[in-house]
Amino acid sequence: MRFTIAIQVLILAAALCASQSAERNQTVLLKEVHFSGDPGVSIGELRQYTEFLTAHRLERKKILEDASSAVGAALRRRGYLKAQVTPQLRSLESSGSKGGEVALELTVKAGKQYRVKDLTFAGLSGQLAERDLKQACDIRIGEIADAEQVNSCITNLGTLFHQKGQDVFVVPSMMYDDAGSTVSFQLDVEK
Questions:
Q1: Residues near 48 by Cβ (< 8 Å), separated by ≥ 6?
Q2: Does residue 136 contact residue 157 with C-beta atoms inside 8 Å?
Q3: The dihedral sign for the CA sequence 154, 173, 185, 147
Q4: What is the third-level CATH fold of 115-190?
Q5: The pTM is what?
Q6: pLDDT tens-digit profile of 60-113?
């Protein structure tokens, strides 16, 4: 008897968990996007990075992940390398509605905008002229630190070494000077 009741309780618990999981992953229609906090750039500019999510039925989880990723990447392109984005969805319809229209609330903390203080190379980079390495990177001292530019630099260095017949990987390091709002990049080329 106890065994039968225990099985029934387990089945009921599993059904409840599946129901809650389905609700969390339910597809919804994103109708509105709102920003709060300290965005570092104009709201209109950030809104451009979330437009691709509106007016489409998507899973809640995908909206939260994609919005956070897109806005975070946009901020890191503009030197806000430590930016934090916290997404939250709220229903626009009465609770229990299956229509699933939602608003996305993005709380942004851009933090400091960093400029490039220094760019150095380590490891196998000594096998090539520093001029060639810096040309492959196109990162200038004093400019706003652009995370996408650093990613391009890493790719370009890999290509440069590949053209010389070497398979390498590049390990980036960042040293922050928060007082001066600068960042130094070291790119270690390894086999």
A1: none
A2: yes
A3: positive
A4: Ubiquitin-like (UB roll) (3.10.20)
A5: 0.79
A6: 999 999 999 999 999 999 999 999 999 999 998 765 545 689 999 999 999 999
Q: Are the beta carbons of 60 and 89 closer than 8 angstroms?
A: yes
Region(s) of the chain under CATH 3.10.20.310 = 26-109, 115-190
Exposure of 156 in the CB half-sphere (CA atoms within 13 A): 15
Taking the CA atoms of residue 149, residue 155, residue 160 and residue 162 in that order, the dihedral angle to the nearest 10 degrees is 180
CATH number of 26-109: 3.10.20.310
- State whether the Cα torsion 118-175-39-28 is positive or negative: positive
* Residue 152: both structure tokens together: 């391009």
Q: Is 177 left (phi over 0), alpha (psi -120 to 50) or beta?
A: beta
Residue 106 · residue 33 · CB < 8 Å: yes
Burial status of residue 100 (CB atoms within 10 A of its CB: 0-12, 13-18, 19 or more): middle
